[in-house]
Design goal:
homodimer; DNA-binding; Jelly Rolls; 6 strands; 6-stranded antiparallel β-sheet
DNA sequence: CGTATTTATTAAACCAGTTTAATTAGAATC
DNA sequence: GATTCTAATTAAACTGGTTTAATAAATACG
């Protein structure tokens, strides 16, 4: 029983756009997807999903309401996709996969929680350095202004931080 | 089979302190527990757990490493406690409770995720107002400097925001 | 009670970001 | 290779916070 499907996307494609309902859960095999919203013309990057990430636009997925976000392929990508109905079937069928689901969710929760604390406790400069250390490849994969947004900065602000660092 | 126990704590007690290993998961029936760390003498509030919260110091709980945080009872509280071994037994025994566990984790994840975005997209003033609206009772229950810390501000900063608002 | 202690506010100097706008650098396209 | 378009940097004025320190208000307690 093959309950997921393999899909290949070109850079520039969208897995999800605003107004859409969310039917699928994704696993990133290879590539990069940027998860963002646009409010009042301002792009706000929430996450970059790269190799090994499970993801979707979770809140609309669960609540069965339309998305307000984009999942844009920012680098040619291979993803494994499972529909919501198939995911539920799998969980009904298998206690151990339900457990896997629980543990995955737990892991995602912890990641997020630690990220909150990182954000709260570190300066912007420190958070930039930490990102540079933990996910250096991002800086080759996505433009700097998206990284600035992800860090909660303006492009100008990030540029200033980089300058300050290069002068030391 | 009663797998949880009811416990009553007085204000000032600790469920968890640094160095301890985390054996239990908690459900807050009534009261308030403040979850914080102290680094370099600086208290950083991560969360206030009030009625209806499931909580523990999750990362050390899962990784089985010592905690670095405090769970301090900031208001007389009644909690239901379940040990890690009992929780695992329950999940082994019951697929539907495992599902409940997964869904609870999912809910916690979404809450957190939305909080991240709130933090990123809103000004400090807006986040203060939002907290005031969503959890007004907190301001009666915990001192303002802890709320400042929770919002990522200094007590002075929060006081200025309050003044600014009162002058409009 | 009155005194001691903790919490909240205020003031002043400072700083790391913002906004706006101009400039430079880099990529894509003809 | 020149042109065009997008991304990144720089500059200048500004803003919302910080830090430190003093003061005022609230709370605890002998």
């Amino acid at each position: 029983m093959q309950f997921y499907r393999k899909e290949v996307y070109k850079k520039g494609a969208y897995l999800i756009k605003p107004e859409q309902s969310i039917e699928d859960f994704y696993f990133m095999k290879k590539g990069c997807v940027t998860y963002y919203t646009i409010e009042d013309g301002v792009t706000r990057v929430m996450e970059f999903f790269t190799e090994g990430s499970f993801f979707t636009d979770l809140y609309p997925y669960i609540e069965e309401i339309p998305s307000e976000s984009y999942l844009e392929v920012t680098e040619d990508s291979t993803v494994y996709t499972i529909s919501k109905t198939d995911a539920l079937k799998v969980f009904d069928y298998s206690h151990s996969l339900e457990r896997f689901g629980r543990l995955s969710m737990q892991k995602a929760f912890i990641n997020n929680f630690q990220r909150i604390n990182r954000m709260k406790n570190l300066s912007n400069q420190e958070r930039y350095l930490q990102l540079l250390e933990k996910r250096p490849s991002l800086f080759q994969r996505v433009p700097q202004y998206l990284i600035a947004s992800y860090l909660g900065l303006t492009p100008v602000g990030l540029s200033k931080i980089r300058k300050r660092l290069s002068q030391q």
